[in-house]
Fold:
Amino acid sequence: MQVFVARQAIFNRRQHVVAYELLFRNSNDNFFPDIDESVATAKLIMENQLNFGTRHITSGKKALINIGPDSLKMDLCTFLPTSDVVLELLETIEPTEENYQLCRVLFHKRYTLALDDFIYEPRWDRFLKFVKLIKFDIRITPLEEISCVIKHLKKYKNIRLLAEKIETSEEFALAHFMGFDYFQGYFFAKPVVVEQKDIDMNYALALSIYAQSMKEHPNINTLAALFQLDTALAFKLLRLINSGVFPVQKEIESIKQALVYLGQDHIRKFVSLIITAHVSQSKPTELVKMCIIRARFCELIAKKVAPSQSNSAFLTGLFSLLDAILDRPMEQLLEKLPFPEPIKLALMAEKNMLYYILATVKAYETGSWWALEKAVVFLNIPSDGLPKLYENALDWSNTHKYD
Structure:
């Protein structure tokens, strides 16, 4: 498949290119699409850093990558090598205590931090010891109005200033005179869209990997076997290991070895990155969340009525909305998944134990009490115990949410 990213050059005072800002694009159209910022950042990382690397796009120079509030909390920065990037903290990030602590952690991990579209207020002062670059959008904060702020910031010897959206020679001359160190805008160069090839991945399989990684003690052998079923997922995993984010001590010779090397915490973050990057733009993420709740609800019911099938019940609930998420027939999707026959039959509405468990969950969700009483007859359980199981499923999904 084709993937896209725009790069816009950043110039120093002698008008030499010193870095590029990378901007997510989903086509050759050179504008930011209507998409959540965390999804855009996740896609940019998946399609670029975990493909050929950002230095391939920036000709070896530093890449400025936008990090919004959700991306910051999700720790998407984990997948970017400190030597290759500048983390551009968007103006939507508030100077709160939580964000201060997150920035402090990134600083101690040796990431270079920048503040984007900066509008000064005293609450930012304590953040400035972590920051190496501050960007001013001169369309939002005209140069003539920020001379006092520039004077204040010049006291911080570690901070460099960048004027962006420079469109005329007069604006460049004034910013240069005011002491700005770097410059960006249409006066120098417009963003250029770079088109690359990437490997299509099996989203359904990724969701299965996610389900396994959420468990308290994920089975590495099972995870490795799932990764091996999809070339794209295996490639991204090995690219992550070899991307400069982790100091590799010896050559990685297998998928299992790569997973062991990552460790449980980073496996979960990596799989969450995959899921976030491939949430369909046209489908609400609520569908994915509903799948997670269904999975746990089905599993809890199965533990009451058919304990040996609890794992299968979990997968049945997890994939019960996959056709709606991907806009493809369930039968076609199941052809690509390594499921045992009972799960496939249940998802195709063929009556078996897993089908009746799923039917009970669906009836409970919709509040169809007549359908619920009919469904629980086949399971031989009373319906009055279901509210507690559903509450358990909700609590569990909030603890293990992908976003």
